[in-house]
Specification:
The protein is an alpha/beta fold. The protein contains 13 helices and 15 strands. The protein is globular and about 75 Å long.
């Protein structure tokens, strides 16, 4: 039935809308009853332009990730860890591969034996990653991350337990003081969610320039310019890297320069920008702890040929705050765990110093860097509370 409807649509040159699919369905097979037509049209559109059996999961409130490991191995994450999606399966491994191909095409990317993986953004904002065999053993693997229609606010993060009320006050102060910050954490800890919420607090008279590999950030702000990297074409030409985007962003009069995820040589251009008058810049970085951030950035700087001492020298003067996120084992709760400030050791290397530590139950404790954080904000005209108790 799918092939017949697809052929009919191709013959008449019609887009696969609900009306055209219904007309093609009636032309391709004997008439159906009203409810049967609606069910058939819904199924056909899902197979033609949707995510097939995954459509219902992607539309379920609270689902953040949908993962396909095989025809009968579909997993979802509702924010409390992975769980098996009961009753959702594909006919066979070929159906999984076919869906991956179609989703990659919808995202304008190539997926075949010559390039057996894809990392892209679908038209509705869902992030797609797919890997074909033999890279993926046994079956095509598909990973979909659902993009929330509206970004969280800090108040909503406080309500869900991801952020303590005093933490929201401190982060708001850091943002108003135009301190540069990096949000660090592991995969799926909520780095992009928190960054989008913070950017929504930026003044409406400021211009935000986003540089991302995949357009994930959608802050609630009236003046946002989005730049997105691009992989090379089939001839290996036309690649645009994050480093290219950061360099172009500096010529676009940014009030806030934002790198969605610092993962390569672009760290050098970002640190140079933050050292030359571009205050209030921010981004995310993968790191297990806040203390690991300098070493992580040192490794990334080496990709651009920057020696260790030069990187740490720039880092100490460019970066003000590191916000560390964690995901609680068992409950799966994503939350802000620590705020760190940057300092230097006896060897001239950058180190992070805990300023505030947030407990899982909502309490917080000041750390050795608390006075330094208050002082940095005060120099920018923003007074943080003297006590956190």
């Amino acid at each position: 039935m799918i092939d017949a409807v697809r052929l009919r649509l191709a013959e008449v040159g019609a887009a696969p809308t609900s009306g055209s699919v219904a007309a093609a369905l009636r032309a391709a097979r004997p008439p159906l009853g009203g409810d049967d037509v609606l069910d058939a049209v819904r199924l056909l559109r899902s197979e033609l332009v949707g995510a097939g059996p995954l459509d219902e999961l992607l539309a379920t409130p609270g689902v953040t990730d949908v993962l396909v490991n095989g025809p009968d191995e579909v997993w979802i994450d509702r924010g409390a860890g992975l769980e098996r999606a009961a009753g959702v399966r594909f006919p066979d491994a070929e159906a999984v591969r076919h869906l991956a191909h179609r989703l990659a095409t919808a995202a304008g990317r190539r997926l075949d034996d010559a390039r057996p993986w894809v990392d892209a953004r679908l038209p509705d904002g869902t992030r797609l990653h797919a890997v074909l065999p033999p890279i993926a053993a046994g079956c095509t693997h598909i990973s979909l991350r659902v993009c929330r229609a509206r970004p969280f606010t800090l108040d909503e993060l406080v309500t869900t337990g991801s952020l303590a009320p005093v933490g929201a006050e401190l982060l708001t102060g850091v943002l108003r003081a135009r301190l540069s910050l990096l949000i660090s954490g592991g995969t799926g800890t909520g780095k992009t969610t928190l960054l989008a919420a913070l950017l929504g607090l930026v003044g409406p008279d400021e211009r935000i320039i986003l540089a991302e590999d995949s357009a994930e950030l959608h802050p609630d702000h009236p003046h946002v310019v989005r730049l997105q990297s691009r992989p090379p074409n089939q001839e290996g030409l036309g690649e645009l890297t994050l480093r290219d985007l950061v360099r172009q962003a500096l010529r676009m009069r940014p009030d806030r320069l934002v790198v969605g995820e610092v993962r390569g040589a672009e760290v050098c251009d970002l640190l140079s920008a933050l050292n030359t008058g571009h205050e209030g810049g921010c981004g995310t970085v993968h790191a297990n702890t806040a203390s690991d951030v300098p070493a992580r950035l040192e490794a990334l700087g080496a990709l651009a040929g920057l020696d260790r001492l030069s990187l740490h020298s720039q880092l100490r003067s460019a970066l003000d705050v590191v916000v560390q996120l964690v995901r609680e084992p068992g409950t799966g709760l994503r939350r802000v765990a620590e705020l760190h400030v940057l300092s230097g050791d006896d060897q001239g290397l950058a180190v992070t110093v805990p300023a505030v530590t947030f407990a899982a139950h909502g309490g917080c404790e000041p750390g050795p860097g608390w006075g330094r954080l208050r002082e940095r904000c005060a120099l920018r005209g923003v007074e943080l509370p003297r006590s956190l108790r």
